[in-house]
Specification:
- This protein is of the alpha+beta class and 172 residues long.
- Helix 1 runs antiparallel to helix 4.
- It starts with a helix and ends with a helix.
Length: 172
Amino acid sequence: MRGWKELVRSMGLVLLFVAGLSCCLSVKNLLTERPPDSYEDKGIYCFVPYQVLPVQVKNMTGTARSRRMNPTRTVYKVYYRAVGGSGYRWEDEAVSKTAGQKIVEEKAAVERRVLGIRGENAYIAIEPELDAESYTAGLRRRYQRVLILSAAYILAWLTAQGVLLGRHALRS
């Protein structure tokens, strides 16, 4: 019984740390998010896949030991270019190398809306039904949702600790 209590307590602390980190990152993202008027709608373009390549990314899955032993992992990205010579490019992650190659062989066109970032020589490619306002509103909702859930967990943890301390004080 004591082992389970220690396990639950340590998992609660780990989740508390994750919730605190999530709160901080959500606030940072909410404060540094670009306003919708910082994007310029360049229109909807048709993108065609032209290659799939392996890319090394930081390993964020598995146990701490497996992340130390294998700090990177390979993912396969499908690269797209816009039809019509505009020069826009877009990339998407494939489930596997064979799935990515199948997408390239099929040459299935994908429509994406291109939003240029004002004041920078950069752009993003988003779903065609979105515009700058709906894109930024979706990001804001996601950050707010993570912030609320993380803060709720922190408050629940603090409340549980207060109840446990109160019970302990009454017993002694």
